[in-house]
Amino acid sequence: MVELFVICETRDVQEEEVRGFTLARLDDAGAVRPWPILVTRKGGKYFGYENACPHEGTRLDTRPGEFMDEEGNFIACGKHGAMFDLDSGHCFIGPCQGKALVPLALIVDDGDLCLADPRLTDEDGLDIPDPGEHPEVLITPD
Ligand code: FES
Predict the structure, then answer these.
(1) Is 2 exposed, middle or buried (0-12, 13-18, 19+ CB in 10 A)?
(2) Ligand 1 centre distance from Cα of residue 106 (Å)
(3) Which atom of ligand 1 approaches the CA of 56 most closely?
(4) Are 16 and 72 in contact (CB under 8 A)?
(5) Running DSSP on this structure, what letter comes out for residue 12?
(6) Which residues, in sequence order, are bridge partners of residue 122?
(7) Whose CA is nearest to atom 4 of ligand 1?
(8) For the chain, which residues make up each domain, given as ranges?
(9) CATH architecture, domain 5-121
(10) Ligand 1 atom closest to Cα of residue 77
(11) Where is this region: Disordered (predicted)?
(12) Measured from the CA of 80, which atom of ligand 1 is nearest?
């Protein structure tokens, strides 16, 4: 049985929000490689994609954590402006029109969003900031 790898809690992804995560995955030679992904929610369903534009293969967020067009309706590539549907990853405008983001088979398990890819590993040795992470605010008494 394949172990589930928890990405985040389901409540961490709001309706029509896009969050980015950098996971770590083993390549064919067994080396640990960063694997940027994004997850979103539409109509109460969760969708995940590799964070790689089908046009040039680069990350969609040229500014960390910025994944959407100005109106906040679609996933957008910050480099050349391609736009993708949240629920299909299909590109409907831009240099990769007609192509699609690589989908991930997300599994919802007891309030967690998970993947079942056996190549996933803990991020040991990879000190990569999570672009979707907000700085923690520490409230201290006066
Ligand atoms: S790299 Fe994304 S639209 Fe060109």
Answers:
(1) exposed
(2) 24
(3) 1
(4) yes
(5) G
(6) none
(7) 80
(8) 5-121
(9) 3-layer Sandwich (2.102)
(10) 2
(11) 122-142
(12) 3
